[in-house]
Amino acid sequence: MSKHASQHEQQLQISTDAPSIEADFRASSQRAMILCLGGKGGVGKTTAATQIADLGAEATNVLATDADTGNEHFFKATMREDEQRNGIFIRRQPEIHAIKHRLRAEDHVGRIDTTALLDMLGVMLAASERILVVDFPAGDTPTTQLCAEHIVESCRDADVRLIAVVVVGAMDPTAISVLTDLYPLLKDCDRAVLARNTAQAVNFQALEASSIFAQIKELPNFRDTEMEKIGERLVEAHRVYNIPWRELATTAPMRIRVEARRLRRNFHAAWREAVRP
Fold this sequence. Notes:
By secondary structure, this protein is of the alpha/beta class. The protein has helices at 3-16, 22-27, 45-57, 73-78, 114-125, 141-157, 175-188, 205-208, 211-217, 232-240, 245-250, 254-275, and strands at residues 31-38, 62-66, 79-81, 89-91, 96-100, 131-135, 160-169, 191-197, 222-227. The protein is globular and about 45 Å long. The model is unreliable at 1-15 (pLDDT under 50).
């Protein structure tokens, strides 16, 4: 192992106390595309995307694509405008580069546009980064269902491992219909992850009793994980002031650093287990 790699592993242990994920990437020559999807705004897609990008950045370079351009939360969490306010954006974390890509058609319906989707896939698959994370637009899952074949075939042709993460909340009325719409994508991707966001509640009995949940559980590529609740001070620091998780866990004031480190360690372990080959 190189001296640089050894130093990097030491840094990982110091900053996150989580197991290094570099071994996972050494075990597979494939790049990975992770789509973060959900049925409604606010369910936790962007939270999942930023956590996964932060995990990936501990091992390699990440391309973060904000396709939910209605609010640009993912882009703002990873890039900041320079001090001159001249439209030039700088990475908040050296390993994570972010772009914006519009997917919705500019018409009265505003559904996901297939041509725009193929353009986005082309840009991402041509990029040099090993991990490609997409914050997908909320809702419009029937159109995403129609795009599933394009997504799956594009990744297969490029020899890129496809991971679909569907975020659901206990109070989310769309969860069952979303999983039904996205079943073709979940069935054919390399890893299908159901991420239960426990921010509002932890009772997922209605979802667990559904026939679509039973179907998805039987898929050989299926993983089930939970997203831990984040306290208000950390939400404000991360979502309002756009402080990266690595900074929150290492250099932020003590009053939030200890909790940020604990949460970061936990979500690193959870996402690593969910998306690993």
